[in-house]
Design goal:
heterodimer; A: alpha+beta; 43% helix; B: alpha+beta; 2 domains; seven-stranded antiparallel sheet; 7 helices; flat
Chain lengths: 187, 205
C-alpha cells in the first residue's frame, strides 16, 4: 500500500480522535491532560458517518456537545468530523477548529498582543504555536496509545457507548441554536 | 497566516537529512525556484515560486534574511490570471454580431466560431491582470517540521512539490495516519495494530 493510500484509508482515525476527545472532555469536565490541560467543545461541531456516507449533521451553539442531537448522532454511529474548541494550556486559552480527516488546524491564534512584527516578536509567535502543537500532539498520542491497543480501545469504546446510552436517556439540555442536516463546510 | 492573525493550515514532517550549514546550499536552491512573474505576452495562466513573506517584492532571498532563530520563514507566491467566462461570451456575441452585419444571411461555421472564441480568449488573457496570493511556509529545521498556511489539497500538493524540487527533501503531511505511524515507531511497536485498525462502530444498539 502506498503512503497516499495509507493516509486515505486511515483518515477515520482523526474523526475517532475528535470523538474520543469530545467524550473525554464531557466526562471529565474538560480536564484532559497532560497536566491540567482543558478542552471544551463549542461553536460548531460537525458529525459524519465514517468514509463520508451521505448524511452529515452540523450543530451550532454555545454548547453543542451537551445537546440531544449530538447524542443521537453518536448513537447512530456518526463521528465528529470537524469541531471548534477551546484549549486551556497552563492557564492560557487557545481557540481553534480541527478537521478530523487531516488534523488541519483552523483559526489557531497565539495568545499574544498584536505588536510590531519584528524578528523577536515573530520568533516568540512561532514558539507559542509550536508549544501548543506539542500539547495537542501529546493528547493525540494518549489517544493513539489507547486506540492501537485492542484491549484498551475495547474498554474505551464500551465506556463511550455507555455514556451515549446514558445521555440519550437523560439529555435534557436545550437544543443548539441551529441544527442543519446534510451541511458541508470547507476547511 | 503564520506571521499575523491566526493560523489555518497543515503541518508536515520533513523527510531526509538537512545539511549542517543549510544557508550556503539552500540559498542558491531558493534563487533557482524564486518567484518569476507571468510573462504578459504568454498564454500562461499560473506562476508559483518562493518569495520573502516579509518583503514580497524583494528579490534577495539570502538565507539570513529568511531565518528566524531555528526557523526559516518562506513565502509561496501564486499568481493566477483567468478570463471571465461571462465576458468572453459577451465579446464573442459582439464579434459574431459584427460579422453578421457585415455579411447578412451568411452562416458562420462552428469551426470558425471556435477559432474566434480561442483568439478572443488569448487576447483577453494577455490583457488580464494576474491576481496574487501569498501563502506562508515556516520550517523548523532542528524539529524537521513545516507549517503551511493553507488546508487546500491542491496548494499543499503544489507546495510540497516545489519544496522537494528546491531542497531535495520530501514533506509528509502530519495527519492521522502519519502521526499514528510515528507513534508506533516511537513506542518500538510494529505497524501491525495500525495496519489492522478498522473504523470503530460506536452505534448504540
Amino acid at each position: 500500500m502506498s503512503i497516499l493510500e495509507s493516509i486515505q484509508s486511515k483518515s477515520f482515525l482523526g474523526q475517532e480522535f475528535l470523538t474520543w476527545l469530545l467524550w473525554r472532555s464531557e466526562e471529565r469536565s474538560g480536564v484532559i491532560g497532560p497536566g491540567e490541560t482543558e478542552v471544551h467543545f463549542g461553536g460548531v461541531v460537525e458529525l459524519a458517518a465514517p468514509f463520508g456516507e451521505a448524511e452529515e449533521v452540523t450543530l451550532r451553539g454555545e454548547n453543542p456537545a451537551a445537546s440531544r442531537e449530538l447524542v443521537t448522532a453518536l448513537g447512530e454511529g456518526k463521528l465528529v468530523a470537524k469541531a471548534q474548541m477551546r484549549w486551556i494550556v497552563d492557564g492560557v486559552e487557545w481557540t481553534l477548529s480541527v478537521r478530523g480527516e487531516t488534523l488541519d488546524f483552523g483559526g489557531l491564534k497565539p495568545p499574544m498582543k498584536t505588536g510590531v512584527p519584528d524578528p523577536e516578536w515573530l520568533e516568540r509567535r512561532l514558539e507559542l504555536l509550536e508549544g501548543f502543537a506539542r500539547v495537542f500532539d501529546a493528547v493525540h498520542a494518549e489517544f493513539l496509545t489507547l486506540r492501537l491497543s485492542e484491549s484498551a480501545w475495547k474498554s474505551e469504546t464500551r465506556q463511550m457507548r455507555d455514556w451515549v446510552a446514558a445521555r440519550a436517556q437523560t439529555a435534557d439540555a436545550p437544543p443548539p441554536e441551529i441544527v442543519e442536516i446534510g451541511g458541508e463546510d470547507e476547511a | 497566516m503564520i506571521l499575523s492573525g491566526s493560523f489555518s493550515g497543515r503541518r508536515h514532517r520533513v523527510e531526509g537529512k538537512t545539511p549542517a550549514k543549510p544557508g550556503e546550499q539552500f540559498a542558491k536552491a531558493l534563487m533557482r525556484h524564486a518567484f518569476v512573474p507571468i510573462d504578459p505576452a504568454s498564454d500562461k495562466t499560473r506562476a508559483l515560486g518562493w518569495v520573502n513573506p516579509r518583503a514580497i517584492l524583494d528579490e534577495d532571498l539570502r538565507w539570513d534574511r529568511l531565518a528566524l532563530g531555528p526557523h526559516v520563514v518562506l513565502g509561496l507566491r501564486i499568481d493566477t490570471r483567468k478570463v471571465s467566462r461571462t465576458m468572453l461570451r459577451a465579446r464573442l456575441d459582439q464579434v459574431l454580431a459584427e460579422r453578421r452585419r457585415e455579411k447578412p444571411g451568411a452562416r458562420i461555421p462552428r469551426e470558425e466560431r471556435l477559432r474566434i472564441a480561442k483568439a478572443l480568449e488569448t487576447e483577453m488573457l494577455v490583457a488580464a491582470t494576474p491576481s496574487t496570493a501569498i501563502q506562508e511556509v515556516w520550517w523548523n529545521l532542528p524539529a524537521s517540521t513545516v507549517w503551511f498556511s493553507s488546508s487546500s489539497a491542491k496548494l499543499n500538493d503544489e507546495m510540497t512539490d516545489l519544496f522537494e524540487r528546491t531542497f531535495g527533501l520530501k514533506l509528509v503531511p502530519l495527519g492521522p495516519f502519519t502521526l499514528a505511524e510515528a507513534h508506533t515507531e516511537a513506542a518500538g511497536k510494529g505497524g501491525g495494530a495500525l495496519e489492522r485498525a478498522k473504523p470503530t462502530d460506536l452505534r448504540v444498539r
